[in-house]
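Archive entry: two folds, one per protein. Generate the first.
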Amino acid sequence: MSLPTFTLTTTAEDVATVFADQIKGKNVLITGTSIGGIGFEAARVLAKHANLVIITGYNSERLRLSEEAIKKELPAANIRQLVLDLSSLAMVRKAAAEVNAYPEPLHVLINNAACGDAEYHLTVDGLEKQMATDYIGPFLFTKLLAPKLLAARTETYTPRVVNVSSGAHAFITAFELTEGAVAHSSPEQVPFARYGQTKSANILFAGELSKRSGGKINGYSLHPGLIATNINTKESNKAHMISIGILTPEGLPNTEKYEWKTMAQGAATTVAAAFDTRFDACPGAYLVDSIEANDKIGPIARDPNNAAALWTVTEHILGEAFSFD
């Protein structure tokens, strides 16, 4: 069968329809699925075809609303809620233990959740909150769920881990890969630079995961596009978004300077990374507009030495090694 070439205007529905047979029977976990975000849209679309979609969030009420919204449209959808606060390592461990107790294997893990607060905060573990939520927590979560993912592997299927990154990663010019810098950052650091570092970490992690697993798990990262989600329109982030021109002085999407996507278009690349069979041939790939775009990876996130160093530093921060046994 000839597969279509996806573009900027491709929607998550479009991708899911093409790969409906691949999604059928699969169990997928998506972090960060509050209504108004691309994680919710990906969950909604995948629920039409998948055997099980596990939705997560740190707010149980928002989780309930997300499930209700999906079930209202798709009464037969198999949705399971999971409370997950990625800013707390203890909560990550608790959530992972819950998933590992499920009877089903896990075919796809989508690390979509991100910290929407650009201000400097430390978590209960003493980690910088944005890095903890966007990268360190997902690294630990993925590590703890690796046995569950490996249990889904067959001769014809390789489980996938999808990290939602951002094109913003390419704008950073420095990323100090020491334990202190990764764990704590600095209150004086520009928020956008810190965000770019977390998104670089997502890309480095996906590539190194594919490499270290030796073909047992395929990792992918992606830029979803510029979308008016509940993160970049959040009141506390508006001033910064206006200062760099993403939003107009009135706080609206700057459509003259940037090409924006709808929520449906923004979730497309996530679904493609999770199920497009063409990516079996390029584990570790970075995707833009639902196609492979490794040429758009910035210098810091492209360097394999950085990937290896970040992996080692993260293991030191967590005090444990990532194993694929």
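Generate the second and append.
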Amino acid sequence: MSRTPDQPRLTPQFCFNQTALRDSLRISRGAVDDTINQNLNALVTPSSTPFDPTSTAERQPRPAGRRAIDATSCSGFKDRVLFPSWQVRSDVLSYCAGVATSPDPDDPDHVLRQVEDVRARERIVNERLDPYSGRYFPREARTESLAALLRNEMMVEKIIRSRTWSLVGERCENEDRDFEKATDAWRTRRGGSR
């Protein structure tokens, strides 16, 4: 069974380092969600029932690899591996979303953007001579860039969780059809929502 990756140390520098942020999310997804079938197969005890030679005479309703998993193993996997890994990623995305919406006094490109804005206002624009002279594309602040990345990552996260939850539902009897409700119920059982 997979081990939940550790939560990275959450700092604004971590969030602004988009490579580190993406890698952290990718590693967590790869450890649990991308390998969900292998993780679920690891929950099945292969020798729980002895081999019956007559079982080969008739077609089985489920392929052997898609055998249902007992409820105790399923709930243990969800409570100890799946939901904690989702929570770690939610914490990272929430923290970085807060960083993206906060003022950024340490932005290294702030002065450069101000200088470019002043130059753009002072330019003489003659669109008859140069139809492109009126164009000005200001640099994006790093908080805006981070916000765009987080919007994409949140959409990816929703798609991945939905897919993972449907695969878990095929093998385990999920009480909730919706992964968000199941995650909220897990948070409540743990003693608080984050």
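Annotation attached to the second fold: The chain has a mean pLDDT of 81. Helices lie at 12-16, 18-31, 36-41, 71-101, 110-122, 142-171, 179-190.
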